[in-house]
Amino acid sequence: MSDPFRHQTFPRAPLIGAGALIGLALIAAGLGRLAGVGNAYLPVSPALVARDLRFEDRPDGSVVVYDVSTGRATQVVEPGTGGFVRATLRTFARERRRQGVGPEVPFHLAARANGRLTLDDPATHRRVELDAFGPTNAAAFARFLTDDRRGS
After folding, report:
1. Are 64 and 73 spatial neighbours (Cβ–Cβ below 8 Å)?
2. Where does the chain have alpha helices with state H?
3. Which domain holds residue 27?
4. Could you read off the pLDDT of 99-139 as tens digits, one per residue?
5. What is the layout of strands, in order, in the sheet containing 47-57?
6. In this model, does residue 150 exceed pLDDT 60?
7. 73 within a domain of the structure (yes/no)
8. Are residues 94 and 21 in the same domain?
């Protein structure tokens, strides 16, 4: 059986043009990323209420929340509760371990003028907009802005 296309070659000009177009697109995307073209930067809204907090795991599975300014334990997340709080703190702790940072630097929790609630880790320069996870999850952290020894 013979191949009817055996002696036909694909034209080189379209191949070269396609390669050049792909290369140009990659260069443009790289330059745009380096220059920050197309990035939206929202200014950070001022904090209305803020608190520097330290979280400590206890052997019984609870998490104690300390207000750094007073050094006092203000709240306790009881074992089996606070799933969102625990997951968020684990994510921050993993990043701290990756960067070789310990628990000595407190987290910064702030209720902002624009209505947002943020948790910042000054040690890793990471910020989480807690409202993005819904009002119930944001409320799990918002309670840490008050001094309430009742816990969860």
Report:
1. yes
2. 12-35, 83-99, 135-142
3. 9-41
4. 998 888 999 999 999 999 999 999 999 999 999 999 999 99
5. 72-77, 63-67, 47-57, 107-112, 117-121, 126-129
6. no
7. yes
8. no
Number of domains in the chain: 2
- Give the span between the Cα atoms of 53 and 108, in whole angstroms: 6
The first and second tokens of residue 50, run together, are 């803020």
Strands 63-67 and 72-77: antiparallel
Q: How far is CA 84 from CA 1, 87, 88, in A?
A: 67, 5, 6
Q: Distance (Å, rounded) from C-alpha 145 to C-alpha 67?
A: 9
Helices and strands (DSSP H and E) totals, the chain = 3, 6
Exposed, middle or buried: residue 140 (CB in 10 Å: 0-12, 13-18, 19+)?
buried
Same domain, 24 and 57: no
**Helix (H), strand (E) at residue 134:** none
Within 13 Å, how many C-alpha atoms sit on residue 58's CB side? 14
* Residue 140 placed within a domain: yes
